[in-house]
Every structure is written in C-alpha cells, then in structure tokens.
Specification:
single chain, mainly alpha
C-alpha cells in the first residue's frame, strides 16, 4: 500500500466532498434569506442527487473499460465551482442547476478515485479504502463549519472560497494523478516479475497468487466472477443506509433548531460532529473489516444504529442528541469502507462499476428521496420524518443479515 499516494488521493477526496458536505449547512440560509419551504429545500438535495445516481455507475463502467485520470480533476473542479455559483444567484432554478452540476462533478470523481485506491491498495484494501473515505468524511465534517463561517463573515458571496478550492485542487489532480498511476504500474510490474522468478525457483505456486485469491498487484484475479445476486442485496442495504444518512444531513439540524429549540450554530454543529468524528470511526471500520470481515462490521454497525436513532429522536432533549452523536458516527461511518470493498469483491470483474454504484448510492439515492420527505414534513411535521428514518435504519440492518460471504477469485 503506497501511503503517500493514498494520502494525496484522500486529500483530493476531502476537497471534492467539502462542497457536498457544506450543502446541508447552506440550506437553512436559503430558507432564512429566500423564504424557501421544506419542499423547496429538499428539492435542492434532489438536484444534487438525481442525475448523479444514474451517472456515477456509468462513469464507473467507463473506469472498467479504460482509465480516465482527468475525471478526478474535472470532478473536484465542478463540485467547488458549482457551489460557489450559488452564492451569487438568488433565482431558485439557477441554484437548482448549479447544485445539479455539483452532483455531476461528484459522480465523475468517485468511481475513478475508488478504482485508483483499489489499484494501489495491495492486500490491505479495507484499510486503504478507509483512508480514502476519511478524506470524504473530513470534507463532510469541515464543509458545514467552513460554510457557516464564510456566510457569517462575508455573506452568501463567501461561498466563492469553495470555487477556489475546486480550481486549485483540480489543477493539482490533473498533473499529479497520472504520475501516481505510473508509479503504481511500475511497482505492480516489479511485483509480477518477482512472482515469476519465485515460481521458477519453486518459492511460489504456479498461479502467482497469494492465499487470498489475489495476484501480486493487489487486484483480484481476472478469473474472478461477478456475484450479481449478492451485489443486489448489498445495493438494498446501501439504499436504506443512504436514506438514513441523507435524511440526517438534511433534517437533523432543523429538528434540533425547530423542535428542540436549539440555536442555529448548535443545530448545525451536529453535522460537523458526526462527520469529523467519522474520520476516526471510518479508520476503525476499515481496520475491523480487514481483521474480522466486511459483513461482520456491516451487521454490527447497522444493528447498533437503530437504538441510537430512537434515543436521539425521541429522547426529547438536545442533550440526548449530542450524547448519541459519537456512537451514531461509529455505527454509520464504520460501515463505509466495508460496503465499498465488499461491492468490489462481489463484482471482481467490474471494480469500477461496483465503485460507482456503491459510492453513488451511498449519497445520491438518499437525495432522490429527500423531496418526498420534505413534502411529508410540510404535511405531518418534522417529528414524523424521524419515524421514517428509524424505519429505514431497521430495513438496513435486516438487509445486512441477507449478505452472503464473498467468493474468492
């Protein structure tokens, strides 16, 4: 595992997801300044998710066919610049279009980046994916804090800073990612030559694979098979998890502010605490996944989430919400790298497509359902939405017990 390269890709991931992470914190300012209702607010979450839920698997398919390293640069550029545009326009449909472009940029970035991580990970795929995920979680954690700070100091125009991040990091990715890919290819070629030499001298078996069914490059053998049935069950789990994750991002701050009577900074800080603590809990999940197995971590995490959400939503106090944030972060984020790597394992022949689906669904599907939840909140109130979130968490946990053990290549 080439850690210095992995850290750089994680940094690009942070700069890409810092814009997506800022979006939920910007929504209350749209409500406050432009008089949007819950339905309109949820429509903006839909804008960032609808096309991306379709496009991201498509770009993953392209990543399987031929590597397009500039996708990473284009993706981080689009996410930053698109969010910056929302600070300079007030028309709802212009904002809707800009956020749609932000979602498309994220869709372009993730499959190629996840395939690159798999390429340089070696045998420690769970840990490598968790490091990559930490970048995204860091972006989601810092995004709300940065957005609130910028808007408070500079007004909505302060969102221009996200555009600067997108331009700078997009340029860095454009020039440096091809160098990382070339370095990884050289190391893989050297490992393959060493494996052939060992085979000749009798130090390795004739297959040139390690005992995990992987070749010496760390990629799954081309003899691996696709288990579409298992991948379909994993997709159901990710879909329900995405509904929980996106609903929390969209409605938890508003729930704290409007139902529990917390101030706007206190309500918004819940997202930052969840995401920033997710940096550590994601690493924990990756370590446990390599040690105990991906499915075991998924089952423990999703099962733990259900009672935590019940206490958070129905404890009737902001103190209960804050008491549940850290364990909720562990339950949510520890499952992130396991389900991405598990998807790549189920579809051993189509790692890019698996990455596009798992990473895309983990965020975008929840956004697609956001307008319906927003409308539901307008009619029945925010508290009723919290019941639906708990139901989605229960279904997510149930789906984890349907997952079969992956077949080795």
């Amino acid at each position: 595992m080439q850690k210095k390269h992995l850290y750089f890709i994680a940094a690009i991931h942070l700069c890409n997801d810092i814009s997506s992470g800022a979006m939920p914190a910007v929504l209350p300012f749209f409500v406050l300044n432009y008089g949007m209702d819950y339905t309109s607010m949820a429509g903006l979450m839909f804008a960032g998710s609808f096309l991306s839920s379709v496009i991201q698997p498509l770009f993953g398919y392209f990543a399987d066919k031929t590597s397009k390293l500039w996708f990473m640069a284009l993706g981080v550029f689009l996410t930053g610049v698109s969010l910056a545009v929302t600070g300079f326009v007030q028309d709802y449909w212009c904002i809707f279009a800009a956020i749609t472009m932000m979602g498309i940029g994220s869709s372009i970035f993730h499959p190629e980046a996840a395939s690159m991580v798999n390429h340089i990970a070696g045998r420690q795929k769970g840990s490598a994916m968790s490091i990559f995920s930490v970048g995204g979680n860091g972006g989601f954690g810092l995004g709300p804090l940065l957005a609130v700070f910028l808007i408070t100091i500079f007004g909505m125009e302060g969102l221009a800073f996200f555009g600067i991040i997108g331009v700078v990091m997009g340029a860095a990715a454009f020039f440096l990612v091809p160098m990382i890919k070339a370095s990884a290819d050289r190391k893989i070629a050297m490992a393959a030559q060493a494996a052939m030499a060992d085979t000749v001298t009798g130090d390795a078996d004739s297959s040139g694979k390690d005992d995990d069914g992987k070749n010496q490059s760390g990629k799954y053998s081309s003899n691996g098979t696709n288990d579409w049935g298992a991948f379909g069950k994993l997709t159901a789990l990710i879909t329900f998890r995405a509904m929980v994750f996106t609903s929390l991002s969209s409605f938890l701050p508003l729930y704290c502010i409007q139902i529990l009577g917390a101030s706007q900074p206190v309500g918004t800080a819940t997202l930052s605490i969840l995401s920033l603590s997710g940096i550590l809990t994601t690493l924990i999940g990756g370590y446990f996944a390599d040690r105990w197995g991906y499915i075991a971590v998924l089952r423990w995490g999703t099962s733990l989430l259900v009672p935590l959400l019940v206490i958070c939503f129905f404890g009737g106090s902001i103190y209960w919400v804050y008491a549940m944030l850290l364990p909720m972060s562990l339950a949510l984020y520890s499952t992130y790298s396991p389900f991405v790597v598990l998807g790549q394992t189920y579809l051993a022949k189509n790692i890019g497509f698996a990455s596009g689906v798992t990473l895309g669904l983990s965020f975008s599907v929840g956004g697609v359902t956001a307008p319906f939840l927003g409308r539901y909140a307008d009619i029945f109130g925010l508290e009723s939405v919290m019941v639906l979130i708990v139901v989605a968490a229960v279904l997510c946990a149930a789906a984890s017990f349907m997952l079969p053990q992956p077949k080795k290549a």
